[in-house]
Write a structure and sequence with these properties.
CATH topology of the domain at 329-543: Rossmann fold
Number of strands: 18
Number of helices: 17
Largest sheet: 6 strands, mixed
Structural class: alpha/beta
CATH superfamily of the domain at 329-543: P-loop containing nucleotide triphosphate hydrolases
Radius of gyration: 28 Å
Oligomer: single chain
Length: 548
């Protein structure tokens, strides 16, 4: 793939300014940059969904496979089974029908080179789908992604995390020449993530992946494409994410030194020009030299580089409005199953103590998000009770950003009577929104930016019991550190679902609820509560063994 002289702007906002790059066959390329830099926009340009102001993308006959960040299943596909949905990634029947039509045309016009070319193209595409191993390849992907038990389920029956995994399975099954993956690990449990990592390493095609998962990028990629929001440039680096960071840090240090030297020279020239302008008219030599220095000064000012802006953040202090009960939440003998499905919880019981940070872990589809929805009242249990202590106030952060009004600005969304606009600006700085950013409408934000607004709004409710469903899914590593510090110091109680061990460790989890595997034997269907330790969490996440 090759990009040549890409230019793109939205009004006065420049996205790309004369960007060119290329990469080779079978390269695995991480696409990185801060939220709003234009990473997802680049994918839309490659897909032909976004027109450039000038420049072009050259794809030499590559078929594209695309996994978007937000999975939306079209209404007409919601009734089909998981098997049929994934199998549609290789539309062999449709292509065979087109091939038959071309052969019928060829019978009428045997000398047509255009028809012969279409026949050859269709046959090559069908052959690339490896019909002899069609079912085997499909079964292997479904099995390794832990989707085998869902093959007969309709798409509309799946959870959000399950839909994301099924959509990913379909993209892999397509066997495209270029995969475009936008935050592919957001909803993956540890074992599925390991399969995806190995699969992509050995993928016989190009892969472009936007991800904030450093471990994943380091394991998969051999090159890194950096989209720079400050300079509007796109640069390709050899090596994985860690290698890119070292190279970029060295470049940034050299650029800062160069700008510093430019500034010193500009200061010297400015002082000389000022003296020349103040000289007596009789001092023609000094005045003449001043004119010459003015021309040099103008040139140096035009050449002056732009430093990446670094903003200071104020200390975040958002305590709960009131202290909650010593036991803010108690779950007793909870049972729940979706209609026609196996039971998710069988007499699940646990209680929380005030100030606790409680983690829920388990594979996709075992009911982690469902448990949160039961606690907040969006679903009703089949049996058992959920009891809140006195003076408990609840705030819920969901993966779908349901609490945001997309018609309003960032500032309007987080507006609170407990804070002045100046205080809100300070709070928003902790969520990496500065200056005029706060007047952007939520509708124009990237998923990562929306996630930051939603989490900020959740904390500003000043509830004493906060429930978080995968809060770091869209955050880059630096943002994760900032948000983690905010939650670490939070004085209330937190219940959280997360697949991010580094973030979990940062905020100070006290205990963890381990949900049983879906295929566990009936006598192993009980959830287990364990005191938290990093070793135990890594044991669960990475080895994916049963906890005993």
């Amino acid at each position: 793939m090759r990009a040549e002289h890409l230019h793109l702007a939205y009004g006065t906002k420049i996205i790309y300014d004369d960007c060119s790059f290329h990469f080779d066959a079978t390269d695995k390329v991480g696409v990185v940059g801060v939220n709003g830099a234009g990473k997802t926009t680049l994918f839309r340009v490659i897909l032909g969904e976004q027109e450039l102001d000038s420049g072009k993308i050259i794809l030499p006959g590559l078929r594209l496979g695309y996994l978007p960040q937000e999975i939306i299943i079209p209404e007409e596909q919601s009734e089909i089974t998981v098997w049929d949905y994934v199998a549609s990634g290789r539309p062999v029947d449709e292509l065979q029908a087109q091939l038959n039509q071309e052969y019928e045309k060829l019978a009428k016009y045997p000398e047509s080179q255009a028809i012969l070319n279409r026949i050859n193209d269709l046959q090559d595409l069908i052959d690339s789908y490896d019909l002899n191993n069609f079912d085997y390849e499909l079964l292997k992907i479904l099995d390794k992604m832990h989707l085998s038990d869902l093959v007969d389920h309709k798409m509309k029956e799946l959870s959000g995390g399950q839909k994301s995994k099924v959509a990913f399975a379909k993209v892999l099954f397509e066997n495209a020449g270029l995969l475009l993956l936008d935050e592919p690990t957001n909803h993956l449990d540890a074992s599925t993530k390991q399969f995806i990592t190995n699969y992509l390493r050995n993928y016989q095609g190009d892969v472009l992946v936007i991800s904030h998962d450093v471990e994943f990028l380091n394991s998969v990629t051999n090159k890194t494409l950096f989209v720079n929001k400050v300079t509007h440039q796109i640069k390709l680096y050899k090596g994985n994410y860690d290698s890119f960071r070292h190279q970029y840090a060295a470049e940034k240090a050299a650029e800062d030194a160069r700008i510093t030297e430019q500034e010193r020279e500009i200061k010297r020239l400015s002082e000389f020009v000022a003296r020349a302008r103040a000289a007596k008219r009789s001092n023609t030599a000094l005045i003449g030299m001043g004119h010459q220095r003015e021309k040099v000064l103008a040139k140096r000012l035009a050449e002056l580089g732009e430093r990446e802006q670094e903003y200071a953040r104020v200390a975040l202090n958002i305590p709960p409005l009131r202290m909650g009960s010593r036991t803010p939440l108690e779950v007793q003998n909870l049972e729940f199953a979706y209609p026609g499905e196996e039971i998710l919880y069988d007499k699940l019981s646990f209680s929380l103590t005030r100030g606790e940070k409680f983690l829920i872990v388990g594979e996709n589809g075992v009911g982690k998000s469902t448990l949160l929805k039961l606690i907040v009242g969006q679903l009703q249990p089949d049996a058992g009770t959920i009891i809140f202590g006195q003076n408990v106030s609840l705030a819920y952060y969901a993966q779908e950003f349901e609490i945001l009004d997309e018609r309003r600005t960032i500032l309007e969304n987080v507006n609170s009577p407990d804070f002045t606009d100046t205080e809100l600006r300070g709070v928003l700085s902790n969520f990496i929104f500065y200056g005029d950013d706060i007047y952007k409408k939520v509708s124009v934000l990237s998923p990562g930016e929306k996630a930051r607004v939603a989490l900020c709004k959740t904390l500003l409710t000043r509830a004493n019991l906060i429930i978080l469903d995968e809060p770091t899914n869209h955050f880059d590593p630096e943002t994760q550190k900032i948000i983690g510090e905010n939650l670490k110091d939070y004085a209330g109680t937190i219940i959280m679902v997360s697949h991010n061990p580094a973030f979990v460790e940062q905020i100070g989890i006290t205990r963890m609820l381990v949900m049983p595997k879906k295929d566990a034997a009936p006598d192993q269907k009980l959830a287990i509560i364990k005191n938290y330790s990093r070793e135990l969490l890594e044991y669960y996440y990475y080895l994916n063994q049963e906890l005993v």
